From TrEMBL, chain A:
Swiss-Prot/TrEMBL keywords: Oxidoreductase
Highest taxon, organism lineage: Bacteria
E.C. numbers: 1.2.1.10
Enzyme class, broadest EC rank: oxidoreductase
Name of the featured protein: Acetaldehyde dehydrogenase (Acetylating)
Protein source organism: Petralouisia muris
Amino acid sequence: MIRAKIGILGTGNIGTDLLMKILNTKSLECTIFAGHNPDSANIKMVSDMGICTSVDGIEALVKYQNSIDIIIDATSAKAHLHHNKMLESLGKYVINLTPTETGKKCVPYINGDECVRCREVNMITCGGQATIPLAYAVLQTGCNVSYIETVSTISAKSAGKATRENIDEFIETTSGAMKMFTGVDKTKSIMIINPNEPPVNMRNTIYFQIDQGDFREICEIVGRTELQVKKYVPGYKIIVEPSFIDNILAITVEVSGNGDFLPEYAGNLDIITCAAIEMAEKYYNNVLIKER
Amino acid sequence: MRQPLIFDSTLRDGSHAVKQNLTEKQIREYCKAIDGCGNYVCIVGHGNGLGASSIQMGLSGLDEIDMLKIAREELKKTSLGAFITVGFGTIKNQIIPAIEAGATIFCVACHCTEADTTKPHISYLVSKGIEVYGVLMMYHMASKERLLDEAKKIESYGAKGVILMDSAGTSTLEKVKDVVGYLSSELNITIGFHSHNNFGMAVALSYVAYQSGADIMDGTLRGFGSGAGNCQLEALVALFEKEGIKSGVNLKKMLEVSEKIVQPMWEYKTPVNDISIVSGYAGVVSTVKHKVLKIAQEYHVSGSDIFLELGKRNVIAGEDDVILEVAEKLKSKMLSH
């Protein structure tokens, strides 16, 4: 069977982790691994593995466009906005991992099937991928939620330069997407960087202000959702089961990474690369195979 | 003799003492009374700063921007300050509205090892011509060398000074002397110190910080603040006066405001009690006290045990969600015995 051909844009840690994950799938292959940094140790390593690499960035994707079905953009917000016009003209399916507003906001568990029909999907933030599925699930029980708050703690070691300089964007993007997916008007997002050694796993706590809720039903759907997300994010684990104090429901979910390229504590990076791979596979199964 | 600058956080850290429920009347009365007393700045808002009103860290009774506006109306001589922790509030949602509400001095805080996260916020404020100070919270968790590296980053972003926060109230006099002395010999910007009273030493710690080179004394009237409370400013000012150090504060007036306005706000028995001593001993951020007590009660476990466990896990400011996890673990451990 012919695999879906992936062009990875961005040769940093995220791009390289994506590549390692692609190597573990049955339906995807990386045809070009392109970035800008000629000194990148990752490019050298990937090239040594016999995979086509380039330091010409987007130009390389243009050159190899005939052997690409899907482009995953793991560059920066600034770079994505800069080359988005060119991506558009290539007419490929784009999975956007940069903290920009372009593309349809996507949480595979919720709207993955629908998102294969767009030109570009936006993977929101790591905190969004971790918390939105559970919030969406709680809302499915029909309870009356007036406010949702999420707190994401990540290890200092997993927070690179871009993360550190974009904390405001993380907060605003996460709370905005939460609002969009749940329909709850009042949302808030908090981010904490924890420097402890050994590094902590990513943890996310979600609080809901609830007027009326069926506790048993909430626990059930939360448990089911955990298993669904776990299918594409193996390290997704609820560590504090839904608990009520007064009218506040709290759930804590931890995400450990798969250790494909990034260390295991970097669950915050793993969850977004896992979500991107899930979308690439969905696109392969729902669109490419049918076209062929 | 260097003049100490008094940063008055009564209506900021003090918010913790009343579970973020300062009233409009209290803010108005306090600001009116303290205005022109000689404090360099009055900082007003949620105890954890702008954007921190949350289930995680306590919901504010008043809107944070309204708090600033109320204070703005009453402060004619003393500057109005705002405090923000990166990760809780943002430039767009909090800093810009706070500037519009009339705050003229900002403190931008982060955990003591993560100063690079403050770059966008400090740079933005500096670009607007606003006086800004970087704040390194939980300073006891890093070495003095690391603190210097972090303080230098804050300096490079254009901040006028850096304030070390002994957020857990776990310092010794020797530690303050060592760290502040080291930083003051290496930095060009002003250094500040913010102490907590878990071991009944907040005033002494601040005084030693001054002697070691810190110029900014951040505290509250009556020690009104989170956990065991803060450095009691009127006591510190009196100590300065006795030693011939001119702080520029009208002590008589400050004592009056403390007695007449702050004392009635704080319905405590003794803030330095068993729980806050354990909290300081464990090195846990002071701000979690009320939440620990509430959850301890809900789960029928000991608040002290929660504090000790939080200490073992090295929780930092804002990680209040860990309390629930710890309480659950303690409870299941109890049940299995």
